[in-house]
Structures are given as structure tokens and as C-alpha cells.
């Protein structure tokens, strides 16, 4: 009986492997960076069901196989519906979220996505945008990737393009205030005082740190500040 069981597993594993290979061809090509959250979960589920087919006894494998075929058919059907209907596509895949609009951080989308400024800053750095104040638009795509449009004149240029030698940057843009809270460690690292910070905020007509969404210190010594509740100019 044992040898027969192993032989069944051997045959079902080969069958599940070939069947999964066929299904991936049917579902079509899509890079990992292009996968939406639904595509990602669907792929994991299809792989799990294929594994169940491989290790289940022959009589029980039929149920797993039926579930696998049904899941693949539903995935294909929903994909076709998404191609034909923009509303269905938004429902299935979601839609882009504008996190920075015309240079202003959008608080509501960040809150809806449960994303803080540290995560936003990390995602910007991954797109070679080291300063929030240099960004005109930042859009979180349905696949989780961040698309960034730099402000005019802030696009990266090489030293050879500018025909200058350039000086080394002593520090990166640093958040000194985030969500109304002072970051004392960063102040200390930059040898700056709270009195200096309060003085800079007064230049922006801000009397309380609690009113500040973010204050970012740039390598050239400037402080970029955005108040809470500011979402930028209205679209024209």
C-alpha cells in the first residue's frame, strides 16, 4: 500500500506541475512589478491549490482539481471584465492615490492608506527623490509602486551635463518635524537647537509645532515647511 501511495503522489505531482505550467500560459505573462494585490493573492491561491492536487489521494485530488480550475476560470473572467469595464477594473485593482499634489503632501490619502511620512520618504528615496520639497507629484499605483514627478529644475543632472566639479553633500534632507512632533535626535545630529527651529517656523508664520505636517531641513540650510490641512492649489 505504501509503495502505491508514493506512486500516486509521484504521478499527481507530475500532473499538477504540468497543469500549473499550462495554466500560467493561459493566464498570460505579467511581471512581478506589474501585479496588483488581487493578482498576487490569486497567484498564491492557485499555487496552493496545485500543491493540494499533488499531495492529495487520487480520489480526493478531484475536488482540489475542480477548485483549481474554477479559481483559474474566475480569475480569467474577472480579468476580461476588467478589460471591458473601467468601473470593474477600479473595483478589482483599485486606483492610483495622489500622495503629493503640486508639491503639497496630501494628508487624507496618507491617512486612508495608513501610511506615515517616514514610509513616504523611504518610497521617495527609492525613486531617487531625497527631498519632499523637490517633488511636484507622487502617485501610488495600484501595484504598490510610487511614481514621482520632480519639480521643474529638480530633475537629476550629471556633473558632466553641468560642466562643473561639484561639492560633496554633507548631509541628506532630514525631517525635523513630522506630524506635529519635533525629532530631537535629528536636531542633535545636525547641531541645531529648538530655538533655531522655532525661529525658522516663525518665518513661515507658524507659532505652534503642532500645526506642522512636516519641516524638512535641506543640505543648503533651508527649511521647507508644510502646515497641516494644506493640500495645495486647486486643479485648474
TrEMBL record:
Keywords: Cell membrane, Membrane, Transmembrane, Transmembrane helix
Main location: membrane
Protein topology in the membrane: Multi-pass membrane protein
Residue stretches in coiled coil: none
Localization annotation: Cell membrane
Annotated YetF C-terminal domain residues: 84-218
Domain of life: Bacteria
Entries under InterPro entries matching the protein: DUF421, UPF0702_alpha/beta_dom_sf, YetF_N
YetF-like N-terminal transmembrane domain ranges (all copies): 6-79
Membrane-spanning parts: 6-23, 35-55, 61-83
Family per record: Belongs to the UPF0702 family.
Name the record gives this protein: Uncharacterized membrane protein YcaP (DUF421 family)
Species of provenance: Bhargavaea ullalensis
Amino acid at each position: 500500500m505504501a509503495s502505491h501511495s508514493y506512486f500516486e503522489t509521484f504521478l499527481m505531482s507530475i500532473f499538477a506541475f504540468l497543469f500549473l505550467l499550462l495554466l500560467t500560459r493561459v493566464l498570460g505573462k505579467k511581471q512581478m512589478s506589474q501585479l496588483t494585490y488581487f493578482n498576487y493573492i490569486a497567484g498564491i491561491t492557485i499555487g496552493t491549490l496545485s500543491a493540494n492536487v499533488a499531495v492529495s489521494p487520487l480520489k480526493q485530488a478531484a475536488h482540489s482539481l475542480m477548485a483549481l480550475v474554477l479559481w483559474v476560470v474566475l480569475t480569467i473572467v474577472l480579468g476580461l471584465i476588467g478589460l471591458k469595464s473601467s468601473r470593474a477594473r477600479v473595483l478589482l485593482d483599485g486606483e492610483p492615490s495622489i500622495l503629493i499634489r503640486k508639491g503639497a503632501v496630501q494628508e487624507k490619502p496618507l491617512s486612508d492608506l495608513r501610511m506615515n511620512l517616514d514610509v513616504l520618504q523611504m518610497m521617495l528615496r527609492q525613486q531617487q527623490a531625497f527631498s519632499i520639497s523637490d517633488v511636484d507629484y507622487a502617485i501610488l499605483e495600484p501595484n504598490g509602486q510610487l511614481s514621482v514627478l520632480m519639480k521643474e529644475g529638480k530633475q537629476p543632472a550629471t556633473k558632466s551635463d553641468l560642466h562643473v566639479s561639484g561639492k560633496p553633500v554633507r548631509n541628506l534632507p532630514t525631517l525635523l518635524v513630522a506630524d506635529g512632533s519635533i525629532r530631537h535626535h535629528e536636531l542633535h545630529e545636525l547641531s541645531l537647537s529648538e530655538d533655531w527651529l522655532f525661529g525658522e517656523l516663525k518665518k513661515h508664520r507658524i507659532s505652534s509645532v503642532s500645526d506642522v505636517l512636516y519641516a524638512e531641513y535641506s543640505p543648503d540650510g533651508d527649511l521647507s515647511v508644510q502646515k497641516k490641512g494644506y493640500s495645495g492649489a486647486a486643479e485648474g
